[in-house]
Amino acid sequence: MAGQRSRPRGQLEQAVLDALWTVDRGSDRGLTARELLESFPEPRPALTTVLTVLDRLGRKGTVDRQEHQDAPLTFRAAHSRADHTATLMQSALAASNDRAAALLQFTGSLAADDLDALRAAIDARRTS
Length: 128
Known about the structure:
- The protein is mainly alpha-helical.
- The chain is 55% helix and 10% strand.
- A two-stranded antiparallel ribbon has the order 1-2.
- Strand 1 (63-68) and strand 2 (71-77) form a beta hairpin.
- It is elongated.
- The relative contact order is 0.10.
């Protein structure tokens, strides 16, 4: 049905980014909008919807648009998945009015492997 969302808000942006992150970062070539569209499971969004999402992500600085002479536009993620996740975590922390409580709540929900990785990162930062 026209006008009805098949995905929650933000999920399509995440799906586009996930598809872009699967492209080999060592390659100079990104994905065309049509290639991106083909990576989606059914029901696929309209091509114009994917182009709109790419435009929004470009304005946010999350996606780079690459123009090619005699070839379609291609798109690449501007940052790695890890960089993007770190930025989201920093934004969430910045939005908190009690950073210590937010950090305690977050670390309290981590699995043992995640805590070990966090401890290792903190130890490495202290020694550098």
